[in-house]
Specification:
The chain is mainly α. It is built from 15 helices and no strands. The protein has one domain. The protein is globular and about 60 Å long. This is Sulfate exporter family transporter. Keywords: Cell membrane, Membrane, Transmembrane, Transmembrane helix. It is found in: Cell membrane.
Length: about 350
């Protein structure tokens, strides 16, 4: 009598997720050995190396794609647990105005620059979102409504990760020449640096600047949900114009076009808002919040490896010069607007 096989079939995503987990361990190890490096940028580099050294085998694709999308969205939800409304209220009206103006000008200006440089609208939108709000997490939140491809997402993540990492060294060096005191420097960092982790790393280089930087930074993060919702609604309106009631239009021949319209607020962005609400109640203990922050960091690094595997250098070199110019220009824009706002408002 033949033996009965009891093993379950291996999920298609398992090899890719295992690769993302291994890359996460390596990224944290490298960051531990070289403190100047952030695990996020190490993960993106590892992902790009795997793809461009032809190590990204088809068996890995399902898992790395899952990491780059689902894990990143889970990280966005958990990011909400680092925010609470009472903490944000301490910023005051002038501080909120500076943050809002910085986000609005950077978001709009980057897309104008993208059109001028000939960068695709989807990539320009993703780069604008990442630089104006919170780096890779913001890119992930906007991705469902941007209409781009994996390369657009990967390039946007690579740009915000690279520029945000450079900010860790550049901004503290500019504090003296720009005449910023500790509080002003913290506000400038919080209003201009992209990722939360990069904000912390930059502000920690000037003693006393961290608290202000984090409060200002997290206020920017709160604007992620309304920004994504407004873009989502605009996309839905534009698609309704293309699919008029009479069934005539560019999309009318697709029977499921209406069904594929992106929701005004992606589900994970709603989860992000819910997480903020839960934190604001004060029901979660500091230990739970600390553990959630650690999990969020790990998920983000694993997801960035997945996104990094979508960066194909030959394709990037064909269009990368314009994208790189866009990224550097957006970084300079957000830094300049934030600096002017801090000076005018005297935060």
């Amino acid at each position: 009598m033949e033996g009965v096989k009891t093993s379950l079939p291996r999920p298609a995503w398992a090899p890719g997720i295992a690769a993302a987990a291994a890359a996460t361990v390596v990224a944290y190890a490298v960051a531990h050995w070289v403190p100047a490096l952030n695990p996020s940028i190490v993960a993106v580099i590892l992902g790009a190396l795997v793809t461009n050294l032809h190590l990204h085998r088809p068996v890995l694709h399902a898992g790395t794609r899952l990491a780059g999308k689902r894990l990143l969205r889970c990280a966005v939800v958990l990011l909400g647990l680092q925010l609470s409304l009472p903490e944000l209220a301490h910023l005051g009206g002038r501080g909120l105005a500076v943050v809002a103006v910085t986000v609005a000008v950077t978001f709009t200006g980057t897309q104008v620059l993208a059109r001028w440089l000939g960068v695709s609208p989807a990539r320009g939108l993703l780069v604008a979102t990442g630089f104006s709000i919170c780096g890779a997490s913001a890119v992930a939140a906007m991705e469902p409504v941007a209409g781009g491809d994996e390369e657009d997402t990967g390039v946007a993540v690579a740009l915000v990760t690279l520029c945000g990492t450079l900010a860790i060294a550049v901004l503290p060096a500019l504090r003296g020449p720009l005449g910023l005191n500790v509080a002003d420097f913290g506000s400038w960092v919080g209003a201009s640096v992209h990722d939360v982790g990069q904000t912390v790393a930059t502000a920690q280089r000037v003693p006393g600047a961290l608290t202000t930087a984090v409060v200002v930074k997290l206020t920017r993060v709160v604007l992620l949900a309304p920004l994504v919702a407004s873009v989502g609604l605009a996309v839905r309106r534009r698609q309704r114009v293309l699919v008029p009631a009479g069934g005539v239009g560019d999309l009318a021949e697709e029977p499921h076009a209406k069904r594929r319209m992106p929701p005004p607020v992606p589900l994970f962005v709603a989860g992000f808002l819910l997480a903020i609400a839960v934190t604001s109640t004060g029901l979660l203990s500091p230990r739970v919040l600390a553990d959630a922050k650690s999990v969020q960091s790990v998920l983000l690094v694993a997801a960035l490896f997945g996104l990094g595997t979508g960066i194909h250098l030959p394709a990037l070199f064909r269009t990368g010069r314009r994208s790189l110019v866009l990224g550097v220009a957006s970084w300079a824009l957000v830094a300049a607007i934030a600096y002017a706002g801090v000076r005018v408002a005297a935060l």
